[in-house]
Each structure stands twice: as structure tokens, then as C-alpha cells.
Amino acid sequence: MTARRICLVLGTALLAGLSFGAVAQNGAAHDSGDRMTPSMQSDGSRDAMFMRKAAAANTAEIQAGRIALDKSGNAEVKQLAQRIIDDHTKAGDQLVSIAQRKQVSLPTEPMPTQKQEADHLKSLSGTAFDQAYAQAMVKDHRDAIELFGMESANGSDPDLKQFASTTLPALKMHLQMAEQLPGGGMHRNDAMDHTDTTPMDDNGSMRMPASGSSTR
Fold first, then answer.
1. CA distance 187 to 41
2. Burial degree of 171 (CB within 10 A; 0-12, 13-18, 19+)
3. Which among 29, 56, 113, 152 is least buried, having the fewest CB atoms inside 10 angstroms?
């Protein structure tokens, strides 16, 4: 075989190898991209963070509601607590369904500061408990309105934007109910305040639309 023919054969083999490598690389990138929807790929970190904050706070709200049902003798406090438990249970199911489609894992426990808040509530009783619970719900719901409002306005995933926007009315209704409880209209108790400089890091309470309330 002549030197020229050898060069031609080697050149053809090199080009074929490069083409195969490019095809394999493109295929791997495509397979990786299929793991999330296009919208989650474009801004997955922000939307995923919203889901995780909301899930943790949703669990915290349900736990606080159960504490209120157990410890409070105030009918209005119990009414709000049951409303929150019912609405947040359904909202949590919705969020889990969305997260499964986006392949985002959600926390199943509240954040540390939320656990501290629950422990504080457990240590109280009577009027002191009712006032502390009302103040906690006012604070959490104000933070949640900001969290869900930002997702509704600025989120990149259509499913999450719709979830946030349809949840906001019930969130505002919960806030209104909490403000009407004894102590709910007062300034927040320093003992219930979080020390974080970014309040949304440990909040983002999950809410259901008004149409999904108190059916349990």
C-alpha cells in the first residue's frame, strides 16, 4: 500500500471517530436534559428552592396547628388551626405531585428554626399560648405572602407559577384570620422572631386556595 493511500485511510478513520464522539456527546447531553422539564433546566435552582422552602414550612404549619388543637381552649384558635391543617395537607399533596414531575426531592421535616418555634409553643399554655400562636401565624403568613408572591411573579416554571398564584388567596385569608386572634394584631414577640437576616430562608408557608378549605 502506498504512503498516499495509507494517509487517506488514516484520515478517513480519524474523521469517523470524531463524528461518532460528537454524536455520543450530544446523545448524553440530551439524556441528561430529559430529567427535568425545559423550564426547570433554565432556572431550576430558584424554582427548586421555592419548592423546598414551601414543603418544609408546610410541614411546620401542620405541626403547629396540631399543637394548637391540643393546647388551646379558644374556639377561634382551634378553627384557624384546623383550617390550616386541612388546607396545608391538600397543598402538600399538590406540591409533592409537582415535585415528582420535576424530579425535585422535598424535605419531610421543618427547618431548625421552625422546630424551635414549635418547641416554644409547646412550652406555653392558656392565653400565653393563644397569643404566641397568633403572632407566629401572622409572621409566617406575612413571609409566605412574600415568598409565594415572588414565585408567582418571577418564577420560570409555569406549574409552580400557577400553584403559587392560586395559593395566595388562601394564604391571605389565613393571615386575616390570624390577625383577628387575641394577640394577632400586636407586634411580633421577640421570642418568636427568627434571627436570620433573610427571613424567607426559614419560611414560605404552604397554603391552599380558598375553595379547598376544611373538607376533612
1. 41
2. buried
3. 29
